[in-house]
Structures are given as structure tokens and as C-alpha cells.
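Sample intake sheet
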Amino acid sequence: MAYVATRGGERAIEQSERLFREEMGPVDRMRVDEIKQSMPYLIDRIMGEASLYDEDLAALALAQTGGELYEAVLLLRAWRTTQPRLQVAAPIEQDRLFTHRRISAAFKDIPGGQVLGPTLDYAHRILATDVLQGETYNPEPVDPAQTPSPAYQPSVSAWQAENDLLDPPKPDTTAGNDIPDLTREPLLFPSKRAHTLQSLARAETGGVLALGYAAMRGYGQAHPTVNELRLAQAEIAVTHPDGRQFSAGRVKVSQAEVVDKKGEKLGIGYAATFGWNEVKCISAATLDLNSSGAEKGSATEEEFFLYHTEGVESSGFCIHFKLPHYVTFQSSLDAMRDAKAKKAAKQTSSDMEPAE
């Protein structure tokens, strides 16, 4: 549907897009590189929600859309559909993640130790206003540790399962092209486990946070404790046609496990996504933990939160209300006028009836 009644028709539509592009200014390689270098966490969010790991393309999408997140994600998803699938990577084990940050709120000490890594969790929120006066904000250099933390860390949940503390999910041996793919198959309910995790991985961060927060505040069945939060780089191992396995590079990933008491053991919720996005993973894992036994229509029901955290679809539905709805709106007005006319006629008829 187009703005057919817009003055000037197609020319007006074309000029409105030109006006948007003009206000954004020219887009070149330097601008893309500046966005990629200065806003890495925003780049991570775009890549995660687009299901496409490419920092250059994510930065280009942001530059091209002026930072409008939904449009940027839509651009990346559309581009992704044009690309062939060349290979399926081997499964990634937690203890093979090159770990930058790994913490647990469930234990003071965990196997491998707590690794704070890069974070603002403990920083003072003070705006560096001197920058606006021409000063340069130079962060203090990091003091290297005498003994660096191990690059590869064990899984906390695996240790819990070994000690009979955790009720782990059933193992899934599906591999390769047999893994259900949400980008090529419709989301049906009850959802396949693979589809649930894929949908949460590319869900809109703000939507996941809102519903996860609702569950945390008491509108869910389980109160989460962060069992393990990890920011890492994952080795992408693929198989060459001659049978040899080789590394195609590394990608940044986030993962979170949350637990809560479930009978005599702990129940677990899990989420992971491209890039470093802690709040999304914790919120998504909370929804996963709460989905079992959730009431129909509640914020933690799987069908509810998977549908309503799909950012591209939900934003598209909202934005479509800007398009012409003249026919349906005029029919509503006609119905209102007809109701008023009938009411007035009934009142007139009542007034003309002779009194007894």
C-alpha cells in the first residue's frame, strides 16, 4: 500500500526519501569505520537481532538508516536472505569459548574463578562534559595481571549436574542441516526447542527486557539467579569438502544461564546471542526458565513472548498504521453517523407520540 493520495504522487514519495538521505549526509567507508569503532556494543546488538554476524555491514546499516535500529536490522535481514548457505559449523562447547568475562551470582567461588572482564557495572555514571569544551577523554590504561585468567573456562552448570544439583535439559543430538532453522521455517507452537532459542537469540533487546523484567518482578513462576554469565569469542569450525576441519574465524557471543529451585533440584533457563549483550541474555534466559507451566496469555507464556519480542515484525505492524486507512476509518465514521441518525429519529418519534 502506498501514499496514493499524497500530493504529487510518486514524485513526492521519491523526494521524501531524498530529503531523508540528504539530512543523513553522505555515507562513505570512513563513516562506516567510525561507527564500527566507536559503537561496538550497538553493532553487536544489530548483528544479534539480524541473525547476521558482519560488523562492516551492521555499521553500514546504521549509517544508511541514521541509527534507526529497526530499519537497520531489517536491512541486514533482507541482505542476509540473498546470501547462499555454504556450510554448517560444528557445535560449540562452553569450555571451548575464549572467555573475556565470566561471572556467577549463585556462587562466590566457581571452578575457574570469577572473571570481571570489560564492564561498567561498578563504574560511576559521570558524563565527561569536558569533551564538549574541546578536551579529549583518554581512558586510563589497564594494569596487566601478574597471572592472567585462563582463556578457557569450565561450565558451572556441568559442575552442578555432576554433583546432582541440577535438572539439565535433555541432550539434543540433532546436527548439521537437520537443525531446525527459524529463518527458513515458520514459528509454530508448541515451539521446537531450537526455534525457541533462535527466536530469543534474535529477539528485540528492549522487548525481551520488558517481559523478562515483568517475570523478575513476580509475574512469572520462577525467580532467576544468574548461574553463569559469559562474554566470549567462539571458534567457528567448519569441514572442508575433503573432510578436514578448519577454523573460519571467531565471533563474539554472549550467553547466560539462570536457575531457580525446581523440586529437589535446580531448573535452568538459557539464552545466547551474537555479540556482547548481557541484559538481553539474562532477560531471555529468565523467560526460558519461566516458560514451563506459564498461564495462557501471560508475559512468560512461550507463544506470547516469542511473538511479541520479534522486533522487525512488531515494529512493521506498528508502523503500518501510518499507511492510508481511509476506507476502514470512513466506514467507522459512517457507522457512527448512522447510529446518531437512528437515535435522533427514535427520539423524534417518541416526542410525537400523544400523551395518555
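Comment: DSSP finds twelve helices and four strands in the chain. The CA atoms of residues 131 and 229 lie 33 Å apart.
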